[in-house]
Design a protein that fits this description.
Elements: E1 8-12, H1 17-28, E2 32-37, H2 42-50, E3 54-59, H3 65-79, E4 84-87, H4 105-130, E5 136-141, H5 145-148, H6 154-174, E6 179-186, H7 192-198, H8 202-211, H9 221-232, E7 243-246
Parallel strand pairs: 1-2, 1-4, 2-3, 4-5, 5-6, 6-7
Helix pairs in contact: 1-2, 1-9, 3-4, 4-6
Length: about 250
């Protein structure tokens, strides 16, 4: 028996990169998957079904509470329940890398709307159906940036620190319903988003990041997906309010 047999998992930011990896991993463990994104999720759904899993794709803007509610309704309509939520949607690729006093205030606000308020909106929408299950799990995707400090990306760093605080507070509130809330904080992962964020400085940035890790290579999406599946499954049924660092053992220099 697979670890997520009979369960349903909704993944935000699922059109590519880490979001797609989470969808594939959840489906491989037996879950019905709902893949949501502002971008088209067709390729993700096709990848899941080609691998023998079940998935539906939806259009989802996490900054819109009505769209978040509709995504949860789509999960229940498609599969009859909701057991897991992976809050992966975030502004990262395309963000400006600059000293904090040169960041556009509008970009700051947009980052908070997606990366923080978007998580709040999705949790708020999902909690009703999750209360109907004996156990459920919310996994929020934070970042090493939140605890290490990523220079010239204060908007991203601050937003991911807020995700960690949200995770701990929400876990305290939802524990009585046996809804677990945890976060995963990876270092830079080899995805399209990382390529776009670091742009011309990508190779040097990735070398610097890897050199500060005990495990000296950059992360692949599958390196993070295993931890997410662990937190969605009963393997972690007494783990909540935690932030698991998937960072290769990064040390301060």
């Amino acid at each position: 028996m697979s670890r997520l047999d009979g369960r349903v998992v909704l993944v935000t930011g699922a059109a590519r990169g880490l979001g797609r990896a989470y969808c594939l991993a959840a489906a491989a463990e037996g879950a019905g998957v709902v893949a949501g994104d502002v971008a088209d999720c067709t390729a993700t759904v096709e990848a899941v079904t080609a691998a023998g899993g079940e998935a539906v794709g939806i259009s989802l803007d996490v900054t819109d509470p009505a769209a978040c509610a509709a995504s949860v309704a789509a999960a229940v309509d498609s599969f009859g329940r909701l057991d897991g939520l992976v809050n992966n949607a975030a502004l990262y690729a395309g963000l400006t890398s600059a000293p904090f006093d040169q960041l556009d205030p509008d970009e700051w606000e947009a980052t908070m709307r997606v990366n923080v308020t978007g998580v709040f909106n999705m949790c708020r929408a999902a909690v009703g159906p999750m209360k109907q299950q004996d156990t459920a799990s919310i996994v929020n995707i934070a970042s090493l940036a939140a605890v290490y400090g990523l220079p010239n990306a204060l908007h991203y760093t601050t937003s991911k620190a807020a995700v960690i605080g949200l995770t701990r507070g929400l876990a305290r509130e939802l524990g009585r319903f046996f809804i677990r809330v945890n976060a995963v904080a990876p270092s830079a992962v080899l995805t399209e988003g990382t390529d776009e964020f670091f742009a011309a400085g990508r190779d040097r940035a990735l070398d610097v990041i890897a050199s500060g890790q005990a495990l000296r290579r950059n992360l692949e999406p599958t390196d993070v997906a295993g931890t997410v599946i662990h937190l969605l499954s009963d393997d972690s049924k007494f783990v909540t309010a935690q932030t698991l660092m998937v960072d290769g053992g990064t040390v301060a220099t």
